[in-house]
Amino acid sequence: MKAAIFNGTNLEIKEINPPIISASQVLIKVMVAGVCGTDRAIISGDLPVPKIPLIPGHEIVGIVQDLGSNVDPIWQGKRVTCEINSNIDNNCYFCENQNYTQCISRKALGIDIDGGFAQYIAVESYLLHEIPSVLSFEDASFIEPLAAAYQTFEKMPIEEKDRNIVIFGLGKLGLLIIQIALQKKLKVIAVDGSEKKLTLVKSYGEVHTLNRHKIQNLSSEIKKLTGGIGADICVDTSGNPSVLNDIIASCRTCGKIHIKSTHGLQTPVNITDLVVREIQIYTSRCGPFPMAIQGLQSGEIKVNSMISKIYPLEQIQTALDAYNNPDIIKTLIKME
To answer: What sections of the protein cross the membrane (predicted)?
Structure first.
């Protein structure tokens, strides 16, 4: 099979043997894999990984081709996606408290173990979710990031006093969170430097947009839009660590900041301001796949307009480099 293999410096397209599945695994023929900021951070070296060489890629959709001896035959031939956190032990402190994404034995697909930038991938059968027939493989590739978007609000419940939310960064995650926020009847303010993305977000509903390249004092502008006190909730999906201090300045006293995108980067922040103004900090990562599948199946969440371009596996480096263009939202890899 063909696979994109990270050798510690760059990606190489190689012919390798398909993975051999264990009794509890299935072999998935990968149809589409989404390119994520995490993948780009791995290739750039910003996010060190424990396994080299590594096949990256964790936004995976495909068809079950083969089953391990202990796997329910019902999965044969199913259109599926899979959760990314494998090797869950169901025995540690975190598993006992239903925090499975923090299991001490956890191995993440495409980060700790080989992922989906390949024609085939072996995964544990308990990770599988069937893709509804109404969803294309391309749209279904958004299930994993949409689950992460829903997790934003699972970890940070909306209170009655929360009336507005500011999203910093309009990549795919920011656009998904905005659609969920609109469903929750929040006043939404979107911040980005791409006019194309700022125009797209208005198609989701009533959203106030701010082009960060055209505003001298972003936090002052946000305070004007939020009664002079700052935003109730600020969410960072930019992946740009320099934005965090703008976010702190834009958040109201006793407000909430949710950090979604890091990609291995670090930045100094004004800790004193956070403490003195009693701002609450939230973080989250993977989320509920069934909720994401339902959101796409019902049509409540729109994703097709986020697909900027689809590339074959041989052009995966081009798909990664495309993000140098600030107007790019999402690139996909389609296997042949």
So the answer is: none
Gap between the Cα atoms of 89 and 91, Å rounded: 5
pLDDT tens string 179-190: 999 999 999 999
pLDDT in tens, 224-276: 999 999 999 999 999 888 889 999 999 999 999 999 976 666 788 889 999 99
How many other CB atoms are found less than 10 A from the CB of residue 271? 9
Question: What DSSP character marks residue 146?
Answer: H
Terminal-residue alpha carbon distance, the chain: 11
Taking the C-alpha atoms of residue 24 and residue 269, their distance in angstroms, rounded to an integer, is 45
Residue with tokens 């510690």: 8
Q: Homologous superfamily of 2-146+287-334 in CATH?
A: Medium-chain alcohol dehydrogenases, catalytic domain (3.90.180.10)
Q: What are phi and psi of 262, to 5 degrees?
A: -130, -50
Query: pTM for the complete prediction?
Result: 0.96
The answer, yes or no, to whether the previous bond of 48 is cis (omega within 30 of 0) is: no
Residue 318's identity, in one-letter code, is T
